[in-house]
UniProtKB/TrEMBL annotation, chains A, B:
<protein>
    <submittedName>
        <fullName>LacI family DNA-binding transcriptional regulator</fullName>
    </submittedName>
</protein>
<dbReference type="InterPro" id="IPR046335">
    <property type="entry name" value="LacI/GalR-like_sensor"/>
</dbReference>
<dbReference type="InterPro" id="IPR028082">
    <property type="entry name" value="Peripla_BP_I"/>
</dbReference>
<keyword id="KW-0238">DNA-binding</keyword>
<dbReference type="InterPro" id="IPR000843">
    <property type="entry name" value="HTH_LacI"/>
</dbReference>
<dbReference type="GO" id="GO:0003677">
    <property type="term" value="F:DNA binding"/>
</dbReference>
<dbReference type="Pfam" id="PF13377">
    <property type="entry name" value="Peripla_BP_3"/>
</dbReference>
<dbReference type="Pfam" id="PF00356">
    <property type="entry name" value="LacI"/>
</dbReference>
<feature type="domain" description="HTH lacI-type">
    <location>
        <begin position="1"/>
        <end position="53"/>
    </location>
</feature>
<dbReference type="InterPro" id="IPR010982">
    <property type="entry name" value="Lambda_DNA-bd_dom_sf"/>
</dbReference>
<keyword id="KW-0805">Transcription regulation</keyword>
<keyword id="KW-0804">Transcription</keyword>
Length: 329, 329
DNA sequence: CCTTGTCATGTGATCGCGAACAAATACACT
DNA sequence: AGTGTATTTGTTCGCGATCACATGACAAGG
């Protein structure tokens, strides 16, 4: 910066003024400074600036399962929104979601000097970990349940699950089976609750829940078990990947879809429309969730306060060919 | 830091020594300092440290299509490796891969003070953009072609495509059709080359190529076109998502797989094993690619030089049920 | 003509840390 | 005891920016 000042024949302060768009700089001196900057290919040192302003221009993202479609999309949305808000994004992805790991990741980011943190933390333990995080920096959770103790943005899983289940009931299915996610996840819980409420509201029997781990493999295994029960005519699956495994298992068991069994998924991953058959599912706007979370965080940073600190986004049902009317026996 | 020094009754330099594990600190003073640090919950200011050491402990990742399985997995691998090497990771995801966007992203990261950059840049234009990037910081590309002008890590796409095609030829198919990726991608090019070479080596006819855009939708559309040609008995598809669309189209056209047509994909996404039927494909170890890229970058930072600056990882074929012997007519 | 206020620019201090050097202390060996 | 060397600690400076304040020039108003 001193070099630039020398070349432009001004003081370092004037260079700083030009850089920060401060008022009270005569147009021609501004030009001279800019010319000097170009000539020297000068780039401000962000560390120095961060040191004195106490602002790093950086936000942190703690993410879990970041290779999965949901988290990856959210991260993408977050980065996009952060950039347009003038922030950098630093990531810390977790291998496990225990309280210690979350705390560690948050600490790491804090040490790096991030101004705020978004936690992509869909697990119950993570939320409580986040809640415990004695963090001086603002923190927003995304994709976690509605009873999160920190500000958060999430899809209304319960409403989505309820709609999915009701869709099947409306097709005259006597009841709807459920393949849930792994225990400990907020999505697992809220989706199961939505399913249960829909059944209860309709006075339908509530069958036993099968549990998976979100993977197609686990859906396949659940499918094999379910296929043994010839009574089953409708299944609501807690995510699309498991639904894929389910379809595979039903196919192998010789059950036609939706002829014998109707299946609904959750997420609407891009491939869902090309499953065999195309999957009826509940769309989660992941990218938008990420963007909204970041907006919330930026608002907190700006000190807007906690005016709208819990944000539930309504998911949307996408009807495809994996669901059909129940066969009356 | 001054506070800590005061509480511990030492100078700030001694605190610094303890923090950096410098030698020549008496055990009991070290203890006093550590105690003071704990008492005050002191955290070093990374901006100040970066300012004086000229090292930000941060690496940048430029990524494209970061919601897709491949890039997301690589990013994940990169982050993991970076963390264990003691670096933070800052991401910049691109919406388009033109030279200007890439340059902008790289500049942004440089301005932030990253010490090195990994570019997840599978597009030809990106590679040339990267090559042009007049960057003072070390730069490594991952997942791009073998003729990249910067150090890079990639799967040997050509070998993978060749193996996939040969697998089909070995099953007695007269020739193998190809659904390629979008033009401009290195993967598209090298996979097509591998396919072509395998055909030529076997003296098989080289059919016209269908092009998609990696999405299941485009695979579906290509599949509809291919299904019209009753001569087709084998298709090598440049990625699994398109293969999924292909399977769907064939199913709708009443062609059985692998009875009428064999299909091979590329990537081995986790769902591929649950397609209908389970997909024979070529596995790319994305996470490992990311890790290796980061290791390469760290080596460059350490000044090990460009000893092994191009690293080709051999992909592995995964045989499943979407391929079978050609039906002799 | 002198005050007063606005613009335009410069000066010095400061952010928190580590590097270089200096000083003090401890230990070893005559 | 005296000298030399190794360990341990402290002092000063500077990294590259912003901030608070000072200064000079000029115009407007009395």
């Amino acid at each position: 910066m001193a070099d630039v000042a020398r070349v432009a024949g001004v003081s370092h302060q004037t260079v700083s003024r030009v850089l920060n768009g401060a008022p009270h700089v005569r147009p021609d001196t501004r030009e001279r400074v800019l010319a000097a900057i170009r000539e020297l290919d000068y780039r401000p040192n962000s560390a120095a600036r961060a040191l004195v302003t106490r602002r790093s221009q950086t936000l942190g993202v703690v993410s879990f399962g970041s290779a999965l479609y949901g988290p990856a999309s959210m991260l993408d949305g977050i980065e996009q929104a952060a950039r347009s808000a003038g922030y950098f994004v630093s990531v810390a992805s977790l291998r496990s979601l225990d309280s210690r790991s979350v705390q560690e990741a948050v600490d790491r980011l804090r040490d790096q000097g991030v101004e705020g943190i978004v936690v992509i933390a869909p697990q119950i333990s993570a939320v409580s970990a986040v809640a415990k995080v004695s963090s001086a920096v603002p923190l927003v959770a995304v994709g976690s349940g509605s009873r999160s103790p920190v500000p958060m943005v999430a899809v209304d899983n319960e409403a989505g699950a309820l709609a999915a289940t009701r869709h099947l009931l409306d097709l005259d299915h006597e009841t709807v089976h459920h393949v849930a996610g792994p225990s400990g996840w907020l999505e697992t819980k809220t989706r199961e609750e939505g399913w249960r409420k829909a059944l209860e509201a309709a006075g339908a029997r509530v069958p036993q829940v099968q549990s998976g781990d979100w993977s197609a493999r686990s859906g396949y295994e659940a499918g094999l078990r379910i296929a043994e029960d010839r009574e089953v005519t409708a299944v609501f699956c807690a995510n699309d990947h498991m639904a894929l495994g389910l379809l595979r298992a039903f196919h192998e068991a010789g059950r036609s879809i939706p002829g014998d069994i109707s299946v609904v998924g959750f997420d609407d991953i891009p491939e869902a429309a090309y499953f065999a058959p195309p999957l009826t599912t509940v769309r989660q706007p992941f990218g938008e969730l990420g963007r909204r979370a970041l907006e919330l965080l930026v608002e907190e940073l700006a000190g807007v306060g906690h005016a709208r600190s819990h944000m539930l986004v309504s998911p949307e049902m996408v009807l495809r060919r994996s669901t059909g009317p129940a066969v009356r026996r």
